[in-house]
Amino acid sequence: MSDPMFLDGAASSAGQVPVFYIPATTSLQERRPRTLKHGDTFAVFDHNGDILQGPGSPEGLFHADTRRLSLCRLTLGGLRPLLLSSTLRADNATLTCDLTNPDLFERGRLVLERDVIHVRRTKFLWEGACYERLGIVNHSTEPRRVRLELSFAADFADLFEVRGNRRERRGIVHTPVVCPDRLILSYTGLDKVRRATTLRFDPPPSRLSEELALFELDLPPQGGCSVHLEAVFDDFVSDERLARGFRTALRYARHALRHASLRMASVSSSNEIFNEIARRTVADLCMLATDTPQGPYPYAGIPWFSAVFGRDALITALELLWIDPGLARGVLRFLAAHQATDENSVTDAEPGKILHEMRQGEMAALGEVPFGLYYGSVDSTPLFVMLAGAYLERTGDLDTIRSIWPSVRAALEWIGRYGDRDGDGFVEYGRRSEHGLANQGWKDSHDSIFHADGRLAHGPIALVEVQAYVYAAKRAAATMARALGEQAYGAKLDMQAELLRFNFERDFWCEDIGTYVLALDADKRPCRVRSSNAGHALFAGIADSERARRVAAGLMSSSFHCGWGIRTVATSEARYNPMSYHNGSVWPHDNALIALGFARYGLKDEVIRIFNGLFAAATHMDLRRLPELFCGFARRPGRGPTLYPVACMPQAWAAVAPLALLQASLGLGFDVAGRAVRFEHPVMPEWLEQVSLRGISLCGHQLDVQLHRGSGEVAATVLGRTGPLRVVSIS
Question: With DSSP H G I counted as helix, E B as strand and the rest as coil, what are the percentages for the chain, rounded to 5?
Fold first, then answer.
């Protein structure tokens, strides 16, 4: 993904980097936004549950990449209520804000002392609508009349406008339609699409105007009342829908989240903080997953990336494959259905290529941004093949692989024909349009690929991790080909993979820096930069065993590991900046993939150290939720990590990182033919004595197993099973 401050990362120069950073402390409750999502709708509220307008504010109620409410402000007696508490349910179903009145005066006379009126504000999203209930209670011994006001505005800004893109022309904002119990705000864009937000109130307000709903509430002593608000979008408005009401819609929403979580195995442990992290992981993934005709698909993150991203979903599915193979199936089927079939320089599309990003807003429809259906990602295509192979290994579901096999073969053909631009055996990228992303790996900021002296590399560029992914993709495809009876094709792919491995070791290893170089530039000059990208070579299995240990030693040194996790580049590098998006920050998903790579090479002590750091970081985070990234400052006693201010929270591949780290530490794998769940050299951190995994699916059956650390070893005990499943533990 690109730097969220800018469209393509091309503007994040030194003078434009954000200058404020937030220590991750418990006081974040009043500073971090509250986010909700369902389907193509998401919301960013402040701690009071309000949406407050302001330059560059990400707050709003968004649907299909357009902000449908840009202001929703609650006042009591003309003043903003005081915050008592603000929290999301553990399953992310609802946001609940407890508020109370400040001192209220009339003509200088105190008429209502503070903390008399309690307002419980409950909000949730469901099927293209935002539901809200205001429960107002008078805790005094006298009757009270309270003036409650809700102010509204809808700017219908495209998400990219909210992110900072300026537009010379916009569509038409229509005059609001005011009815006794509802207000209709609408806009027709330059794409000729009418977008509307209908606000419905129950009971009807005492007064309703184009921008304000006023309620005069008479509250008896120790008594109260409720006010309901529904914000419904476009075609979702119907009498039948509005008749459902708050309670019915909430029941549906909670049921849907529970149903989604049933796909997954459950994790519980002896450490309650880790249990909270695991529950938040599952809740965030269920919230971010969107139902599509092809199956569930995880949107990347809120607020900037609540949309289809190829790379993010593929890595998320790989991290979560052991616990939820159904998500991987949905991702594979969706991406196969949207695979490029033609060349298009504007969208960087080429036959067989897997998409990078998919947007629904006005600017995408008009081509003002190229991301309506955009393919500017060099790694999504090999990752697609990798996930397909990993899915087959995890499930044995050959029918699904057979159904997407034409797409897998098309992806492999893209790798050989379009990916390898100069025929040297490596896959390079270079955008075909000036409007696309300049860098097209996961570190896609404009300055993320550079030489040792700090000069930016010029493309086409061959990234270290992309060659590793291609190697793993060909190995995976060879296995799939043999399973489908294509023996000769499988043998050919294995030979290609071995040749790639040889060339990779020859051209990417740099003895001077003791690791694999970041990339090769257009002239095949190596970018001799020590980066976390090299750790992905271990994740994909391309690295030589001895060199893998040297890479690991470097990544665990103090120049990389800040105490919370591995930085994206070492502190010794010319462009190192702990506050940058990609040049010195810590990304949980990056660390999780590296840890899985360490486990592949038997480096379990290093796995545990990464696990320890990110666990400690999560204990400081609001809601126990790991963000997209945080700053790479060294860990200091008594202080939490320093947050990157515009990082997405939640972010899919960061959310599931703790479960990937658990898999890496336990050495958890699957043997479909033997109907066995394997634990290879399992280890657990000191803060974790026992872990229970329930509902692990394999071959149509389920297994419950408990792992316990004691006497220097981890032992596995079967708690229950359906069918002939086995547990194999290798110490």
Answer: 30, 30, 40
Q: Which fold is adopted by the domain 263-666? A: Glycosyltransferase (1.50.10)
Would you say the C-alpha torsion 11, 7, 456, 312 has a positive or negative sign? positive
Which residues on neighbouring strands pair with residue 88, listed in sequence order? 95
By the 8 A CB rule, do 598 and 545 touch? Answer: no
- List of residues 6+ apart from 135 with CB closer than 8 A: 119, 120, 121, 122, 224, 226
Q: State the pLDDT at residue 29.
A: 37
**Can you give the pTM of this predicted structure?**
0.94
* DSSP E strand stretches across 479-573: 509-510, 515-516, 519-520, 526-527
30 CB neighbour count, 10 Å cutoff: 11
Whether a cis peptide bond, with omega within 30° of 0, leads into 221 is no
Tokens standing for residue 131: 């539901």
Cα–Cα distance for residue pair 466/426, rounded to 1 Å: 9
Q: Is the pLDDT of residue 56 over 70?
A: no
Longest Cα separation, the chain: 90
CB contact at 8 A, 717 and 706 = yes
Are 524 and 506 within 8 A, CB to CB?
no
Helix (H, G, I), strand (E, B) or coil at 81: coil
pLDDT, tens digit, 9 for 90 and up, residues 117-152: 999 999 999 999 999 999 999 999 999 999 999 999
Which residues are CB-contacts of 161 (< 8 A; sequence separation ≥ 6)?
167, 363
| CA–CA dist 391, 621 (Å, integer) | 32
State whether the Cα torsion 231-237-243-249 is positive or negative: negative
For the chain, the residue count is 731
What is the domain class of 33-258 according to CATH? Answer: mainly beta
Name every residue whose Cβ is closer than 8 Å to that of residue 53 and which is 6 or more positions away in sequence: 59, 70, 71, 153, 155
Better pLDDT: 237 or 569: 569
182-188, long-range: CB < 8 A, 24+ apart: 183/152, 183/208, 183/210, 183/213, 185/152, 185/154, 187/154, 187/156
Residue among 35, 41, 33 at smallest CA distance from 230: 41
| Cα separation, 228 vs 205, whole angstroms | 10
**In a 3-state reduction of DSSP, which class is residue 508?**
helix
**Structural tokens at position 667:** 């050495």
| CA distance linking residue 697 with residue 668, whole number of Å | 13
Task: Judge whether 718 and 703 are in contact, CB under 8 Å.
Answer: yes
546, burial (CB in 10 Å: exposed 0-12, middle 13-18, buried 19+): exposed
**Is pLDDT of 8 > 50?**
no
Tokens 């009807």 correspond to what residue? Answer: 204
Phi, psi of 382 (to 5 degrees): -65, -35
Location of structure tokens 């998919």: 358
Strand pairing category for 726-730 and 676-680: parallel
Handedness of CA 465, 468, 470, 472 (dihedral sign): negative
Residue 2: pLDDT band (50, 70, 90) is low
> Alpha-carbon distance 146 to 136, whole Å?
10
d(C-alpha 178, C-alpha 328), whole Å = 46
SS (H, E, C) 308-329: EEHHHHHHHHHHHCCCCHHHHH
What are the domain boundaries of the chain? Answer: 33-258, 263-666, 678-730
| Per-residue confidence (pLDDT) for residue 238, from 0 to 100 | 62
Residue 450 to residue 441: CA distance in whole angstroms: 13
Q: What does each C-alpha distance from 124 to 121, 297, 329 come to in angstroms?
A: 10, 21, 28
Cα separation, 477 vs 407, whole angstroms = 11
pLDDT tens sequence across 215-260: 999 999 999 999 999 999 986 666 666 556 899 999 999 999 988 8
What are the Cα distances from residue 56, in Å, to 5, 59, 156, 211, 596?
10, 9, 14, 22, 38
Could you identify the residue written with the tokens 């039948």?
Answer: 240
